[in-house]
Structure formats: C-alpha cells, structure tokens
C-alpha cells in the first residue's frame, strides 16, 4: 500500500512535467496546426531562465575586510552580491534564496517574446507546408537553440537550488496515519505538482471562461468560419503560441531544482512529450494532460523493484509499450478528435 | 540497358564513375598544403559516404515514395550491426555471411515493426516507429546486455569460437574482416607528386554495394510497384475506395528500406567490427531523415548527395580549430582577426551542430526539394539565360 502511494506520488511530478510540455505542444498543434519539434528547446530555455536569474542575482563586488585575514595574513576578500548591498543583507539573501520562484516572473516575458519571434519569424511561413517540413524546420531550430545555450552556459549541468524553505523532504505517510518514515517525499516535488495543476487549470479556465478563449476554441474547431466572421484569428493564434511557449518555459523554470539544467534536457523530454501528445490524441488538451499523468505514473510503477524482477527491463520501455498498445487499441489516442492529422 | 531507360542508365553511369574515381575527386589538394584538411579522400570517410548513402537510398524508398515518415530507421541499422558482429564472433571473419545475415535479420525485424506500425499513418506512424526504435535502444542498453554488451558495445575478442576461421591469428591478434582473404582495411597508396591517393578494399566493397543498392532503387522507382507506392503518397484514401489494399505495398516498401538499413549496418560493422547501442538512438534516425530531405526526398540521386554532404561537413567542419582559423585569417589586422575568428568559431569545431541546424532550417525553408531542386533551379536559370540572350556572356553562379 505505502509503496503504491509512493510510486503514485513519484509519478505525479514526472507526469506534471510531461503534461505541461504536452499541453503546450497540443495548444500549438490545435491552434496553428504546426508540429513543433522545438518545444523541448523552449522547456530548456525556461530552465536556463532560472539559471540566468540566479547568476544575475549573485553578481557581486569584492571588498577587503581588514578585520579578518586569510591564511597568508592578507586581508580577506569578501564577496557581497549587489542585491544584498541594495536591500540589506537579510532581504538580499532572501531574494537570492528565492531565485527560482522569482525566475517565473522573469521567464514569462522572455518566453512570450521568444514565442512571438519564433511564430512571426519562422513558423508563420510553414502553415501551408507539409507536416514533415514543419517537423524538420523546428528540429533544425531546436538544434540551433540548444547549441547556443551550450555555447554560453557550457555543456555541464548547472545546479539551481530551490528555496531553503522547500529543500528537504517531509513524511507524507505520517500525515495519512501510516507508519512514519515509509513515504518520504521532497517538498519541491509537491510544489511542482501543485504548480502544474495551477497552470493547467489556468490554461483551461482561460480557454473556457474568457471571450478570447472562446474565440480561440472556435478557431481550433473551424478556422475559416471564424475568419469569415471578421475576426483576426491569426493574431489570436500568435498570442496562443506565446502562451504555449510561456507554459513550457515555466515548466522548465520549476523543473530546474529537480534536475539541474543542461543543454540537452529539452531533447530528452521532447521525444517523450511527443509520445504523450500522440497517446492523448493530437489536438486534444484534456487528452494531453491525462496521458502525461498516466504515462508518468506508469513509468514510476514500472521502476518498482518487485515489477522489475518480474519483467526485467520493463522500466526502460514501459512508456513506449503503453504508447504502442494504446495507439493500436484506440487509433486516435485516448481523446483524439476525428479528422486531425489523418491526411 | 540493364532494364533501365537511357536517362537512368546515364545517371547510374555517373554514380558509378563517381564511386570509382572518388579517391581522386575527393582528394583535390596536395597532402602537405594548407588546404589538405578539406580533403575527404581517406578510407574511413569514403566508406561512410557509401554506407550512409545506402542507408539514405533505402530510407528514400519508404519516405520518398510512400510519404510515410519513419523516425525509427536507426533501429534496423543497429540490428544489422549487431548481427554482423555476431557472425564475425561465431562463424568467420568473411564479410559475406555477416552482410547476408544482417540484411535478413533487419528485414525480419522490419517486417515485425512494419506490420504493427503501418496500421496507422501520419504522425501516429512516425511516433510508433520512434517508440519501437527507442524501445530497442533502451533494451540494448539494459536487459539485452548478454546479446549487445550494453554500454561498452559488442566487440571481437580472442576467445570467440569462429567455427570456420581462427580465434586468433598466428601473431596472437584478433583476425581482421576480409572478403575471401582480401582484407577490408588494406589500403594501397598511390603517390603522384604532392598528392597521395588512397585506394581501400573496404571502400570499393561499399561502393559496389552502393551501386547495387542504387540500381535496385532505380528499378523500384520505375516499376509498377513504385507507381503504386507513389499512388499511396498522393492519395491513399482514394486507393482504398477503389477496392485496393495498400498494406502489402507499404509493408513491402518498409521491409525493403529496413533491409537497406540492415545492409548499411552490416557494412559499418564489416569496416570496423564493433557495434554500439548509440547507433539505434533517435538522433541517428533523425540524421537519415536529414540526409534524405537535404538531398531531395523522392528523387533518385538526392539521398546519396545528402548523405555525402552531411558526412563531409560533419568530418571537415568539426576538425577546424582555433589554430587553423588563426592561420587562415592572419593577414587581417589583429582586432579584425579576433572579431572574425570569434564569429567563425561558433560555427566550426564543436559548433558544427549549430551550422547543421542553421543549414537545415535554410534548406527546408528555401529549398523544400533539397539540393536536387537547388541544382535544377540553377540549371533552369542558365537555360533561360542562354535562350533569352545568347549573345551576352553569362557568368557561372559558383
């Protein structure tokens, strides 16, 4: 029982990441009809927004402290970050400590800008081209973005810690009345899950309850008719692309403390996210979220020792096995719409 | 001739001439000149041109004719490599049985995967093939270690049985791959003035097989079967409505292209007898897609050109380093030199992938038909100019 709860919890945070990326992919696909292979790169750029903000906040100047000396007897050099000198040591340290959550605010405008540039500059020209061309051009773009990041941040992982308050883990089992020390769960992963739930809920609410969202949904269903009604649907779709980029970016920012960012993390997630999107059904937002969590939980169950000893190697391939079975049983994925991507 | 039309026969002849003379053509600069690093006429790279040419030609039979975009073709390449190395370990160092086995095994594997994946089309097909390839890759790394030797990769050892051959040579080393005694790695060097031309046995075996593969591909393109595959690409629904079952045709195309990939894998192992799981990773599958598109999908010669182009620049660009750049630009004043080098070094050496990505975006955006389309455009430009103004002298575009 406790093992099962633990695996479900483990699956939820991985599933949240899959679901967030898949949600963005589906938003782009559903609105613009473009298969965006650069979406993983957007996730990666989001994670590097967190790294960048952390570096900016840690910019510091050196002062000589005559009261203390280092081991050679010279006055000790003390590094003080600028934020600490501006806001005082306590507030400054707190700001640095909270750099990852702050990076969300930083990443939203950055990601929306990147999304706009991408859509207006490149993807706009690919609406009427075959899907293979879209895949290839965005794949090329993903390589370029990845190499640029590699050039400026290096090839190694960069540790980006979560705020002190969320470091460490808590005893989830004791809360449920089980034996203590059975289900230990890191705080940050719970934060990640809650964050993902908020974002997903936010996107759905935006699409469901605002006029803008209503127009976008109408455009997804029948773009031409909406255009004939005198609505500039292209501009709204561009904005949706920006939002999708921001969702991927925020997913990346929050993922930075879980897995230190490196330049190829986007590609690692991309393949799985595509599997998730296809399993959920191309163009279906609830499908993407459902499949994301489903595959995340399945993956963590398959990595249980009991199951691994039963079927060796299952943890490596479970997602793909599940994808194959689901696609063969339900041709359009879990919640796919008819007529999408079937030409 | 050979059952080909005149145009196709000329095309085959050109490819044959290129393959035969490649050691000269790819070696235009003297060995000790500063430009020698642009030479590609060394055996290892030339073998790769041929092998990846075969791979891309096979991929084109599936993607170029039927329009089914497979993202898992590297799996067949990997399977081919593994079977060839096992043949070297168990039977003999002769490459013939190894290549035959790798083609057969890859074909069977493709039959299995194709049978399941081809039940869907469009992006669903792409993801299914990708899923199968990633599964094979992950399994090769983990559970199948007894077969694949995991991360180390499958290698020959001195203890291998090699029933028809010897476990170790008289000198106590591992025997080398050969074709009835002709060693694959044997290279004859012809020195002519400053030039050193290398003729490698393995290269000519790969070249012969490329010609065979190319010939078969032309025959398929021109056959009723090929026409049927094109019909699948242009409108599969209509074919189904006329009461035709397209599955056997697409499956046959899938298996054939899988066998091509297996042949390429077997050759890779024959030239250098080791096989690793990274050959099956999805990036490797992506690479063959790139080659085909860059050259021109659906054309005969395109995939070969694309494969050669990518492999050439991958090898040459990634070798250029800071010192080389400094020696190129040392005529410029220092400040400009440093600025130029700062810009250029992003694109060469380890930055080669950046160049590849940019190239890729440019080709897909402006030349959707690949290099072949580019060549045709330039050709048409000349013809029009010739026709319009015969009197004016036209300058070559290159």
Automatic annotation (TrEMBL), chain A:
TM annotation in the entry: 16-35, 42-61, 102-123, 190-216, 237-258, 270-298, 310-329
InterPro entries in the record: ABC_transp_permease, BCAA_transport_permease
Provenance organism: Pseudooceanicola albus
A Pfam family assignment: BPD_transp_2
Family: Belongs to the binding-protein-dependent transport system permease family. LivHM subfamily.
Protein's name in the database: Branched-chain amino acid ABC transporter permease
Membrane topology: Multi-pass membrane protein
One GO molecular-function entry: transmembrane transporter activity
Subcellular location(s) of the protein: Cell membrane
Primary residence: membrane
Lineage of producing organism: Bacteria, Pseudomonadati, Pseudomonadota, Alphaproteobacteria, Rhodobacterales
GO terms (BP aspect): amino acid transport
Keyword Transmembrane helix: yes
Entry GO CC: plasma membrane
Keywords attached to this entry: Amino-acid transport, Cell membrane, Membrane, Transmembrane, Transmembrane helix, Transport
Lineage: superkingdom: Bacteria
TrEMBL record, chain B:
Keyword Ubl conjugation: no
Record-linked CDD domains: TM_PBP1_LivM_like
Main location: membrane
Protein name as it appears in the record: Branched-chain amino acid ABC transporter permease
The entry's keywords: Cell membrane, Membrane, Transmembrane, Transmembrane helix
GO-annotated cellular components: plasma membrane
Transmembrane segments: 9-26, 46-63, 94-116, 123-143, 163-181, 202-221, 249-268, 288-310, 352-375
């Amino acid at each position: 029982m406790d093992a099962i709860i633990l695996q479900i919890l483990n699956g939820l945070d991985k599933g949240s990441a899959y679901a967030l990326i898949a949600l963005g992919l589906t938003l782009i696909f559903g609105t613009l009809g473009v298969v965006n292979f650069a979406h993983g790169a957007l996730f990666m750029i989001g994670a590097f927004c967190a790294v960048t903000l952390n570096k900016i906040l840690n910019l510091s100047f050196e002062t000589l402290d005559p009261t203390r000396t280092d081991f050679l007897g010279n006055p000790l050099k003390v590094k003080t970050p600028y934020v600490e000198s501006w806001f005082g040591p306590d507030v400054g340290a707190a700001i640095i400590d909270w750099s990852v959550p702050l990076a969300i605010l930083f990443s939203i405008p950055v990601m929306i800008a990147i999304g706009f540039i991408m859509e207006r500059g490149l993807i706009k020209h690919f609406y009427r081209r075959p899907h293979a061309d879209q895949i290839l051009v965005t794949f090329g773009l993903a390589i370029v973005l990845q190499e640029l990041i590699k050039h400026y941040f290096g090839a190694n992982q960069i540790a980006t810690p979560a705020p002190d308050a969320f470091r460490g883990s808590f005893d989830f089992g004791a809360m449920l009345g089980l034996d203590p020390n059975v289900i230990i769960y890191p705080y940050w992963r719970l934060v990640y899950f809650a964050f993902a739930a908020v974002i997903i809920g936010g996107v759905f609410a935006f699409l469901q309850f605002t006029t803008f969202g209503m127009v976008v949904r109408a455009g997804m269903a029948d773009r031409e008719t909406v255009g004939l009604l005198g609505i500039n649907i292209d501009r709204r779709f561009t904005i949706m692309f920006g939002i999708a980029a921001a969702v991927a970016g925020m997913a990346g920012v929050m993922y930075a403390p879980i897995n230190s960012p490196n330049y190829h993390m986007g590609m690692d997630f991309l393949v799985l996210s595509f599997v998730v999107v296809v399993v959920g059904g191309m163009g279906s937002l609830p499908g993407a979220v459902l499949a994301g969590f489903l595959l995340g939980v399945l993956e963590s169950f398959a990595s249980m020792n009991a199951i691994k000893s039963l079927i060796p190697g299952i943890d490596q391939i479970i997602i793909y096995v599940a994808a194959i079975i689901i696609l063969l049983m339900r041709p359009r994925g879990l919640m796919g719409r008819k007529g999408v991507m079937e030409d | 001739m050979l059952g080909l039309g005149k145009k196709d026969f000329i095309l085959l002849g050109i490819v044959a001439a290129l393959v035969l003379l490649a050691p000269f053509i790819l070696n235009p600069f003297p060995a000790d000149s500063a430009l020698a690093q642009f030479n590609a006429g060394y055996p290892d790279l030339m073998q790769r041109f041929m092998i990846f040419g075969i791979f891309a030609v096979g991929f084109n039979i599936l993607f170029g004719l039927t329009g089914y975009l497979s993202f898992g073709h590297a799996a067949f390449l990997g399977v081919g490599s593994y079977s060839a190395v096992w043949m070297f370990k168990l039977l003999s160092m002769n490459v013939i049985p190894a290549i035959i086995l790798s083609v057969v095994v890859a074909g069977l594997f493709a039959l299995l995967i194709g049978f399941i994946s081809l039940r869907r089309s469009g992006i669903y097909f792409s993801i299914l093939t990708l899923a199968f390839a990633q599964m094979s890759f992950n399994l090769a790394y983990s559970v199948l270690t007894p077969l694949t030797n995991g991360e180390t990769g499958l290698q020959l050892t001195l203890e291998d049985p090699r029933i028809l051959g010897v476990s170790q040579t008289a000198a106590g080393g591992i025997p080398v791959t050969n074709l009835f005694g002709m060693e694959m790695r044997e290279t004859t060097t012809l020195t002519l003035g400053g030039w050193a031309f290398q003729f490698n046995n393995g290269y000519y075996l790969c070249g012969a097989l490329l010609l065979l593969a190319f010939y078969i591909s032309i025959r398929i393109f021109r056959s009723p079967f090929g026409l049927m595959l094109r019909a699948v690409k242009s409108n599969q629904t209509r074919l189904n409505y006329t009461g035709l079952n397209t599955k056997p045709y697409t499956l046959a195309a899938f298996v054939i292209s899988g066998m091509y990939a297996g042949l390429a894998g077997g050759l890779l192992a024959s030239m250098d007898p080791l096989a690793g799981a990274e050959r099956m990773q999805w990036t490797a599958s992506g690479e063959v897609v790139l080659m085909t598109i860059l050259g021109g999908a659906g054309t005969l010669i395109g995939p070969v050109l694309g494969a050669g182009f990518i492999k050439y620049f991958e090898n040459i660009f990634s070798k250029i380093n800071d010192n080389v750049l400094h020696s190129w630009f040392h005529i410029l004043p220092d400040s400009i030199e440093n600025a130029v080098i700062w810009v250029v070094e992003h694109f060469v050496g380890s930055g080669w992938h950046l160049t590849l990505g940019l190239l890729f975006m440019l080709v897909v955006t402006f030349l959707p038909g690949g290099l072949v389309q580019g060549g045709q455009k330039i050709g048409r430009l000349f013809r029009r100019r010739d026709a319009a103004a015969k009197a004016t002298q036209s300058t070559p575009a290159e």
